[in-house]
Amino acid sequence: MIAAGILYGLPFWQGSLIAATLLMGPVFCGWICPFGILQDLMIRLSNRLHIKRKVLPEKVHRALKPLRYLLFGISILLAVDFIFTLFSFDPRSGFEMFLAGNTVTAIGWGIIAGFLLLGLFYERPFCNTLCIEGAKYGLLSIAKPFAVVRNSESCISCGLCDRACPMHLTVSTADQVRSPQCISCMNCVAACPKDDALSFRIAPYPKRQIQLIATAAILFIVFFVKFGGLNQTADLSSITIDDLSIDTETLSNGGDATGVANGTYIGTGTGFRGTMSVDVTVEDEVITAIQITDMSDDARWLNRAYNTVASSIISEQTANVDTVSGATYSSMGIKEAVSDALVSAGSTVAEVIENDVDTSKRQHSRKSRDHAF
Prior knowledge:
- There is one protein chain.
- This protein is α+β, with helices and mostly antiparallel strands.
- Helices cover 46% and strands 11% of the residues.
- It is built from 17 helices and seven strands.
- The protein has helices spanning 2-7, 11-24, 27-32, 34-48, 58-64, 67-77, 81-87, 91-99, 106-118, 125-129, 132-140, 160-164, 187-191, 210-227, 248-252, 299-316, 328-344; strands at 146-150, 176-177, 198-202, 239-240, 263-270, 275-283, 286-294.
């Protein structure tokens, strides 16, 4: 679990994961996800404690099943602070951040504990209803060439495969299992008493699913073009004065770099997920370049904040600039870090800026300013 939490952010790991998902389905969900594994362990604990496992009524399950896809759609269409705050309480994300060495708030741990408690009675309650990561991988794998295939001639209709499925899919009557809910865990195949009744292999697409595959493909093309893929990479390239059109009058009036000797100075601030560090370059008492060197914020929101806020700071020669709507936490972290660098370098003008956005809304509490993640 710890290895998965650390490796998940690495580019080669993400590329391999997407390739495996395209071929075989959401293998991350079924085999790697730390929070998924933790929920599976709760079922084992439930069995040890002889707690009777419960199954949601079919009507309730059908009503809850679309939730994670609805949340996924909201997450990519609405980039506002409220949505960011709402998703910050995602227990899967919180647990993975904990494994990566970050701090989780009491509220975050309470939500994690709540789902684990539910996991004693229901299999994978979070995965089944609210996990947007599972929704992404499920939709991405809709056209996978490999699938669980049922041999109707060998099947004895015992129902063991249905009872073994943690996502409550009906395997015993399906020719192929191609639901985006399937997490490729192979529990159904392992539970089948007939060796040749269920198998995981390359299978032709059912005609009725071709339209669904085409729709999912179009949605993901739009998603990748507009938002840069399943897990964006933060663009931390330096933003310099040469990249911008600066009013010479602004420079002559002096700014936050007044009194600062030529050089590059390090500053730290608090973003959404913890400490971020920036390098601020000063030449002739002018801020000429800003570069984020370390951070833990989500790339999607950081990218929105970084270019706009850093460019504004250089253009206006002050860290006291407007934040970016929908990326307030990251914006404030950048402003705080730049002001910290300038004040520490001896500026006679710069004011100390503190990220005063309500910290209770953050999933992960601020760590010591001396330790960047």
